[in-house]
Amino acid sequence: MAALDVKPKSKKRKQAEEDAPAEPPAFSAPVESLEMLSDDEGPEDTASDDGHVDEFPEIDAASDSEEDGSFEDEEDEEEDSDGTDEEDFEEEDSDDSMDRDIFPKPKTIISDITGQPKRVYPEIEPDYDSDSSTEDAPNRVGDVPMHWYDDLPHVGYDMDGKKVLRPARGDELDKFLQTVDDPSAWTSAFDKTAQMDKPLSAEELDIIRRLYANEVPDAGYDPYEPMTEWFTGKGKEEVMPLSAAPEPKRRWVPSKWEKQKVMTIVRAIRQGRILPSKPKTTSKLEFYSIWAEPSTSHAPPLPAPKPRLPTNSESYNPPEEYLPTDAERAEWEALDPEDRERDYLPKKYSSLRLVPAYDRFIKERFSRQLDLYLAPRIQRVKLNIDPSTLIPKLPSPQSLKPFPNYKSLKFTHSGRARCISISPDGAWVISGDENGVVSLWEVNVGREVKRWKFAGKIGALEWCPRLDVSYFVVGIEEVLHFVIPPNLPSPVLVLTQSLLAPTTLPPASETPSPVKWVTPPTSSWSPDTAILTVQLPQSSGLPKQIAWHRRGDYMATVSSGGAQGGVWMHQITRRHSQAPFKKIRGAVQLVLFHPLKPHFFVATQQYVRIYNLSEQKLLKTLTPGIKWISSMDVHPSGDHLIVGGYDRKLCWFDLELSDKPYKILRYHTRAIRSLAFHPTYPLFASSSDDGAIQVFHSRVYNDLMTDPLIVPLKILRGHTLKEGLGVLQVKWCARQPWLVSGGADGTVGVWCS
Amino acid sequence: MGRLRQKGKAGAAKAYVTRTSAIKKLQCSLADFRRLCILKGIFPREPRSRKKANKGSSAPTSFYYAKDIAYLAHEPVLKKLREHKAFAKKLSRALGRGEWSDAKNLEDNKPVYRLDHIIKERYPTFIDAVRDIDDALCMAFLFASLPSNARLPPVLTENCARLAAEWQLYVMHTRSLRKTFLSIKGIYYQAEIMDQTVTWLVPYQFTQNIPSDVDVRVMLTFLELYQTLLGFVFFKLYTDSGLVYPPPLDVKKDEGGAGVGAFSLQSTSQAAPSAAPKAKAVEVDGRKISGKDVRQAIKTMTGDSATNGGDIDMPTAESSSMEVDEEFVPQQSTSDPQSTSSLTTLKALEALPQSLTTSLFSPYTFYLSRESSRSIFEFIVRSFGGRIGWPASSGSGSPFDESDDSITHVIIDRPPVERTDETAEERERRLRRKYVQPQWVVDCINAGKILLEEPYAQGSTLPPHLSPFGESYEGAYDPTVGLGKQTVEESESEDEDVVLPEDEEEGEEQVAEKSALRAAATANDPASLRAAELAAEVAGVDFGTFEKEVRKSRKKSKAPAKDDREEGEQDMNKMMMSNKQKKLYERMKYSEKKKASERAVLETKKQQLQKQKKREAKAG
Asked: What ipTM was estimated for this complex?
């Protein structure tokens, strides 16, 4: 009972406090103490309850009933609760005060001033009797957080308002020693207000022990006390009703209003306005004329493509030729199902009754459905043309004669015939191989007239294009040899000798050149040796190419190594060499002189640059789109350039048109090695590592509107492949439509029309 | 300077969305998205540049038109699917809590979507719908034959069977079947409805099992759509030809395995008053059929048995009377007097082949022996105007039994058995009837005429059954055409070669002569020609024959030589083609070559077979 009461009581008390502020202040102190007491009292009360369970209800029966009533009231009408509560509380209060006899009794006296009676309480003496003075509290700082004093020298105030100074505390060592000395150190705790360790009392230790053991901290509390039965059990039933009021009528007469409400619903149900339950959603579809009303103007979506109709091979009884042979069956079975052209193997049954079920039927329908909703659909225009119409119509080669047609003779070298050159009159050929042998022979009959042997591989050789003199240049490792062929008519010979080895050397140029021009003494001249030797700078490597200017005075060489891209420009009359480029981007592959203008073509690995030599500036950069340029030639008109690459492409540039190729041809199966325009005939040829030489008719027009006409004429085959190399160089005879080709197999062939 | 264009704000990046982003936008699950795509007929698109469409990423994804997805967002079906999701949650909760009545309530009010708006949207006109019912029919026929299981409720199978029967009834009624093909996969039928060819494939009547790698949910979603589509199409077809849809089902007949015969076609005028009792007849059990229903049933039976069933021929008679009125009178053109004479009228065109082919079997009465499939041949024969009966073992509802005298053909598919215990009557009947194998029926309708019965007689080896749809491309191998002249010659010469060893005894001389002549024929350059001449002289061939041989061989070799040169020129001219053209050319050539090789393979096979046969005939 007491335990039950504690909570509402304290709550009510607070309310009472608020309600009665007019009460004398002296009253508040006892109230406080009462509260404390009641808290303390709880266990005591229960303990006392335990003692006499049976008698308790009898003792407090009246108050109980009262209490119950108040509880009921609380539940029913909250407004009333306050007043009754107050009464209860006051009664209880008085009871309690009577019991304990703690509170001093007030005396009622007539006030002198007002003449009214007033209550006078006796003076409170702060002696040992007084509750608050039982303990000596040196620090009266109150219930404030002690960390406020952390930075201050004092920890609070004593009764006089003087500061209580922080007691001196030793260092850690002192603390430790103290713990060692004091046997009760481990059962003491630090008291913040006192700033010292206080030993715990036995009760406190017991509480700690209980907490550790997960028990109820209060030793006196019995969690398993037997239930006090108040209302149940024998003889405790309520006999009398709680109130004597008669039963209201509404408890036993059916409600009229309810009836009215129900009747409206019933009427609605009867009339069908309210359905007892919603009509069940049925999956049964009712069909109707859906296309009766006009459709939207939207174009219908494209119908899905229909599956292919079955062919003869799908028949249950196909003609026998449709049946697969064992090889075909094995091939079909070896393929993955998605790679198979047909998803079935033709089979023949002698009668319809023997035809079994098709085991992939459902699978096929399923894949058709997957196609319908998962496959992207593209509309493709079907090209209904004859493939042969795609081939361009070109004039027949027969009408474009003459062009080299067959191999008329063959000249054989021991090594790869890497370079060949034809004399400007078109009668003589020199060919050099990788063993250092240079042969001079006639175009017409192939008779070798003379043979020179040089030290090392022949990199390039070229006749001087002048007709009044006759010599050729042979490029070997870091050296250029100027050689005069034998059996020259004497005026030509004299002129050539005076050109290459003049008696009075031209004055040396101001700028010193690393290239040395050396002429052996007259006495040691012989047809076997060079009349003039140009020593290219050290480590310049093998000259890959020699290109003559059309006048025959200037000559450009490209070496495989060395600075300035390995390009040297040599002037024969001045016996002077210079590097035209201080610095050049990319490895120079080839150089060419423009046939008419003072232009100079330089092919690096991917680009062809055109320089103007007189103005010394870059004119154009052509981008053939070839990975590695192998060969290049310029049309005799100077307006067209062909560039070939190791990636099998041939690009035709119209120099007046664009930096991009006019036409890209890809017909060789291996790298293109050499290209050559015929100086007079409208022909050009390309040779490749596939061992074939392709001859083209190439007509260019002066009219700017007409595109050049390129007609493939003939594929010349006859060179054999050796170590992956085919035809290394092709050259045209100047006055005949004849072609000379040098192959890696060591043969040099002449192809005549 | 114009406005700067931001990347991904226009063009392909905007027009296409990936599947993931589409799902995100629609806020539905992938399964729901698939379902929607199937129902709405939305399929992925292939953008011209995948990279541009996918904002620079080249990861493999499928793209959809952004507009398609935008339309999907407003789809009522999507709304219903979302409602269904909520419903499923509620139901599972109710079941989990054991609130059975709530669950039942929920189940009763389950959201169900309707597809008719989608049908209307996808097929704005009836023709569009008819054009696209091929797949739907295939599915209906397939599912009509599937055994029901946990995933396939029996209702579904029943409905599919009903749709299949309704379609067959309609085709039979309008006689619109054109072609049939017995293939190893099943039977292909082709009908012409509203000038649209509809081809469908029916599996042979065996139990099919759904393989494990087939997603049944996808198939069922398709089937859902197809059922609705077929229902609406059939409704329109039936009502347009003056029939009641759905045709009432006779439960008793159906239980007896009558198949298509369980449904009875009713013209609308006839059915209007009797619609209510009809519906009742479906419900009631066989015993309690009202008198009216019995009369109706008798009527349909007699309608079937009569050669020109009343309800079948009725519309055609009407239409013919209509056409007589609008006779086409050719008027001479004032400007071009010659042009008029060659005009043909629609009537003339219609009259020409159709009447013949669609009533191909009308003079005949067929009887099916029990091993040939009734569902196939009843459909085929009846759609070409024939009458057909079958034994009771093939199902009930046969209009006549085996002893009927009107039977002209018996479709029989078993080897002949010598019967000793037949009565004279039976024997006489047997001699009067023609016993043909089932292929005869199909070949007849594909040929459009009645073929000779002898090659198809019972027990004989059947001639090959060819596809009436022809080959897929022009110039394919045609088994009906005999081999070309050249190949025949070749084979003759080969025959000679085969014969050659036989007459070896004639003497060494002749052999030598022949070899010399052959050498002359092959000699090309002058040196070898000279050698050949000498050899011929040694062998004793006179100069005249030698010259002749040489000239012949020259003539032979010259023509190809010229061809060769032209070919070489062409080859060279190919160099001047652009890369694109070259690739296209190569592709075309490749396919041409492939077709030619296919053809050649078949031809050589046929040749070999013929030779083998000849040899066997000789040996035998």
From this structure: 0.78
